[in-house]
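Researcher: Structure prediction, please.
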Amino acid sequence: MTPDPGDRTDPAAAGEVDVERLLKRFGLSDKEVDTYLTLLDHGEAKASTVAEAAGVSKRYVYSACEELETRGFVTVNDHLTPTTIRANAPEEVVERLAGDARSMRPALEARFSRAEATEEPFEVVKSRVTVIKRIRRAVSEATEEVALSFPVDRLDEVAEDLRAAVDRGVLVLLIVTGVEGESPGEAVDLAGVASAARAWGQPMPSMLTVDDRTGVVAPAEMVARSNTGKQAIVITQQQLAPVVAGSFLGNFWPAAAEVFVADPAPLPATYTNFRQAVVEAELHRRAGEEVAAHIAGRVTPTGEAIELSGPVVEVCQGVLAPATNEFPVQHTLTLAVDGERVTVGGPGAFVEDIEADRVELTPLTDDADRDAAGDTGGDDGTHG
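Model: Predicted structure follows.
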């Protein structure tokens, strides 16, 4: 029995689904969609009936139905006279389409070259909530170094993420801003929140750099309160993020007062973040513990790979007060190697003798090494 077209489900009852659009997504042409929907309305009909209802020629109906039958939408009864076309049950059609989609998955996955989604190099952020989210996410993804300036009265919003970074062994340099009083170190407990922390009495922009790949700069008032109309910039371009780090360490860090320094980490320890290796070496030396370093890197003038070891006889750095470097971003280890002083810098070093990729620090326990360190008195090394 052929259903009455009036018995079909009302579109409103079907949730106003755009069936035509969905069918086109499965590859049906406009006329194939019209033909199929007409057949759904009739259930089964002659080609002439479908042609009249769909507004196409009878020849086109036969052509369209040939394709629709191949894809499982209809059945052409060409053994009957006259030929009729029957719409297959919707549940059968849907199951066949779903089956086709499922069968494609293994082949698609086999050909899929998985790649990380690329981030835009710049993002302008207008919401305080979004800025905090970007800062927290970047800190949570840090593997080597975090440098952050943040209002002291808002520190609890990021403190948990900073603690987790410290626990992961990340070097965390923190400036808390808006700290009042003559004893800024008493204003807030920063143990566990940072590797080294400083305080600044006045508001300053909130700045963040993570692993020299992500930077955030936000006006002070934008982080302090909502709805200021200010905007922040998030940078994910590796060429520019280090510029933010340079500004942080070169302009703001030296001007702030040191309020906390963590204890030196246990040795031996291996670092791929050169600045962290320098800081740890200096912490151990200040604690009266002599250290040696094993360096894997390159000879600066030639780029030739090299590994060398020796006692650390001098440290130039600007993270811990008092600074011992000549300019803010200078961080250098000087080693005693075969009776000579060899200077070691981090990535991009050009005036040191060695550019380090990896540094292993160990306690200096060998008397011969101590003698070697003592035999290299005088500063013959070049630092930068």
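Model: Residues 90-111 form the longest helix (22 residues).
Researcher: Thanks, that helps.
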